[in-house]
Each structure stands twice: as C-alpha cells, then as structure tokens.
Design a protein that fits this description.
Largest sheet: 2 strands, antiparallel
Number of helices: 7
Strand content: 15-25%
Helix content: 40-55%
Number of strands: 6
Order of helices and strands: HHEEHHHEEEEHH
Radius of gyration: 17 Å
C-alpha cells in the first residue's frame, strides 16, 4: 500500500508541476493549421481540414486526410516541427521565438524546420546562407532553454 501511495503522489506532482513545451499555436494549431505530415510526402505543404484533427502533447494538429492523421498518430515525434514550430533561424541565431510562414520550410536530416518569411526578410534564405550545421547545433542548444518559456 505504501508503494501505491508514493506512486500516486509522484504521478500527481509530476503532472501538476511539469512544464509543457511552448508550441507555436498562434492560429490554434501547430504549423498554422498546415498538415505536418504533408511536408514530408508532398512537394508543397497543405492546409489541414477540421475533420481530421489530433491533440498531442497538449496542442492541436490538422491533417488533410484520415491517412495522414493515422501516420501522425503512429509516430507523432517524426512530424512535429523543430523548436515547437517557431522560426528555426530566430531560435538559432537570435535565441528568440518568432512566428512563421507555414509555407517556408525545410526538411533536413528527416526533421521539419519552419521559418519566418515576410516582406524582404526570408529567414530560410538566411538559414541556408549560413553554416546550417552550426545553426542547427545552436538552435538545439537554445531550444533547451527556450522550450518551456511562454512567448
């Protein structure tokens, strides 16, 4: 009985006090409602449909089809954008969270990176012009500090 009480206490305190990752859900969904699976299987990302949604890690995702929804559910971490769906360049180079243009992205090393793109500021171009491997490493390091901080 003592072990059951300890187990329950640990489960409750972990759930109560653990901090969730801050995902970019400025439009209510990760990736501004674009189907995160479509980035990997289409030449252009597609906007998700309200008929096909899922919640993972406390945030919502949209999909274009039941097939993509099932692919996501089978392996969600494969499709979730890096850095919570914030601009990868801003996380790496500026250590700050910035909104994205969901159609400005890169798949690199099997991972989805999203970028800000407006007016004359395309951060994907900056990402590619720089030392991308070094930016990835810096982004990974910066994200460890930023992931639990609300924007």
């Amino acid at each position: 009985m003592k072990h059951v009480i300890i187990f329950l206490f640990l489960g409750i305190t972990t759930t109560t006090f653990s901090q969730q990752i801050d995902y970019n859900t400025s439009k209510g969904f990760v990736a501004d409602g674009y189907d995160v699976v479509s980035y990997f299987i289409k030449t252009k990302p597609l906007k998700g449909n309200n008929k096909f949604t899922a919640t993972f890690d406390g945030v919502k995702f949209k999909f274009v089809s039941e097939k993509n929804l099932k692919l996501f559910k089978a392996n969600p971490k494969k499709y979730i954008p890096q850095y919570g769906g914030y601009c990868a360049y801003a996380i790496a180079a500026k250590k700050t969270k910035m909104q994205i243009d969901a159609e400005t992205y890169e798949i690199r090393d099997g991972k989805l990176y999203l970028f800000y793109n407006a007016w004359f500021s395309n951060k994907l171009e900056d990402w590619k012009e720089g030392d991308t491997k070094k930016l990835q490493q810096k982004g990974d390091t910066n994200w460890k500090e930023l992931q639990h901080k609300k924007q």
